[in-house]
Design goal:
With 119 residues, this protein is of the alpha+beta class. It has one domain: Glutaredoxin, CATH 3.40.30. The chain is 45% helix and 15% strand. The protein is globular.
Length: 119
C-alpha cells in the first residue's frame, strides 16, 4: 500500500485518519494542504479514483467539496468544469482528509469502512 493523507493539522478527521492508519501499523505520507497544497495532477488522480467508485466525475468533484466550509458559497454555483480550478486555488474548500492509495483508490472524508478493504 502507498497511502497518502492530504489534510490540515487542525482538522479532527485528518487526525482520526492518521490515528486509524497508525493503529494498524500502516505507513503513510502526510501532506499538509495549508503548507504544500495539492497539485493539479494529484487532484485529478483523486477525482479519477473517486469517479470509479462513485460512478461519475461530477459526483467525485461534489464529494471533494466541503459544504460546511465558510467559503462554500464561492464554489457552490460554479460550473462543474470551474470547480476543480477553484479547489486548486482554495484547498480549504476540500473535504478532508483526502486519502489516496496509489493511483487507483481514494476517499474524501473519514472513511474507515473503505480503508479496511485496502488492507
Amino acid at each position: 500500500m502507498n497511502i497518502q493523507i492530504f489534510g490540515t493539522s487542525k482538522c479532527f478527521d485528518t487526525k482520526k485518519a492518521e490515528r486509524w492508519f497508525s493503529e494498524r501499523h500502516i505507513s503513510f505520507q502526510k501532506i499538509d494542504l495549508k503548507q504544500k497544497g495539492i497539485s493539479k495532477g494529484e487532484l485529478e488522480s483523486v477525482v479519477a479514483a473517486l469517479a470509479r467508485r462513485l460512478g461519475s466525475k461530477d459526483q467525485a468533484i461534489e464529494a471533494l467539496i466541503d459544504s460546511k466550509s465558510k467559503d462554500y458559497a464561492s464554489i457552490a454555483y460554479l460550473a462543474d468544469e470551474d470547480k476543480l480550478e477553484k479547489l486548486l486555488e482554495q484547498p480549504s474548500l476540500l473535504c478532508t482528509p483526502l486519502v489516496r492509495n496509489g493511483k487507483t483508490d481514494a476517499t474524501a472524508g473519514y472513511c474507515p469502512d473503505i480503508w479496511k478493504n485496502w488492507e
